[in-house]
Structure formats: C-alpha cells, structure tokens
Amino acid sequence: MDHQPFTPPHLPSLLKQAVPMLIEGVFAPLAVFYATLTLIGLNGALVAALAWVYLGMLWRVVRRTRVPGTMVLTAVALTSQAALGFWTGSAVVYLIQPEVGTICLGLVLLASLRLRRPLLAKLAQDFVHLPAFVLKHERVRQFFVRVTLLWAFVLIANSAGNIWLLLNGSIGSFMLLRTVAMAAAMGLAIAVSVWGFRRVLHRLNLDAATA
C-alpha cells in the first residue's frame, strides 16, 4: 500500500460542485414537470421533464465534458416514468414511479454490499476525484460500507413516506412536502457523509505520517 497523504477538497468547493448537480438532476425535473403540468397538461409536462434532462446531457456531449453517472441514472429513470405516464395518462402513476425506483435503488445499494462493491464508492467519483490508493485503503472501504447503509436507509424511508403523502393528499401538497423532506433528508445525509469522509481521511493521513 502506498502511504501518501491526501487532502480532500474544502467543503465549499464540494458544495459548489454537488449542489448544482442535485438541483439539475433531481429538483429541476420535478419543478419543470409541475410547472408545465399546471400550464399545458400531463403530456406536455412529461415531454418537458424529459427534454430538460436530455438537453443537459446533450449540452455536455457538445462541450465534450463528462456526463455524470447520476445524470445518466436520472435520464433512464425519467424515460421509464414518462413511458408509463403516457400509457396510463395518470400524473399519480408518473410521480409514484421515482419513489418506487428510489426504494429499488436503496435495495441495490444494500445488494452492492453483499457483492463487496459499495455502489457509493463509484458514484462518489461524480463529486470528488479519489486516487486509487485512497479507494483501496481498508479504512476507506469500511467508510463506504457504513455510508452505503446510511444512504440506503435514508432513500427507502424517505420514499416510503413520499408514497404515503402522494396517495393521501393532493399533487400540489405532495410536490411541496416532498421537496422539503428530500432537501432535509439529503442535506443531513450529505453532511454526515462529508464529515465521516473527512474524519477517515484525517486518520489515513495520520497513518501515512506514522509510516
């Protein structure tokens, strides 16, 4: 093992990169969908939400910049949502799909632990570049196991609550409460993840200094 010190990016720079990606890939498609739904109806809203994501990907391809894995996942999810939305003609069916998909993603995160390949170790590369020697360190591997468990719980619990809201309230109240709940849950999970990661890297650098 190559014991080298590694200094992570400062929190403001991480937030500067992560927050726009979350807004573009998670919150903006929902906002575009709901705004268009109130103006021109369901079919137009489905097209607008899809157009938002695919134009964002096309813009990156034209500029020859990397398309984040999180954006690809969003595009795949929205495409399947829109297909069922067009087929059923139901906004509830469209809106409940991402919640079911998020629960499935939580289960995939848990399954990745069984395969000893925590999925978050791969997705984390969208937000911060980690050298190979950092990813291979046992402390870092254990961190990604713990943080994968955290995110699996947050995703499954949050989406289960959102499904209850959707089935027991109006679409407008669902959109508002879902956004608030998602921002709070993801904000807390991100804060815990960043704190834990910096703590692990601090210990890693202590090990390197001792070596």
From TrEMBL:
It comes from the Bacteria. The chain crosses the membrane at residues 31-55, 67-87, 93-113, 143-167, 173-197. Keywords: Membrane, Transmembrane, Transmembrane helix. This is VC0807 family protein.
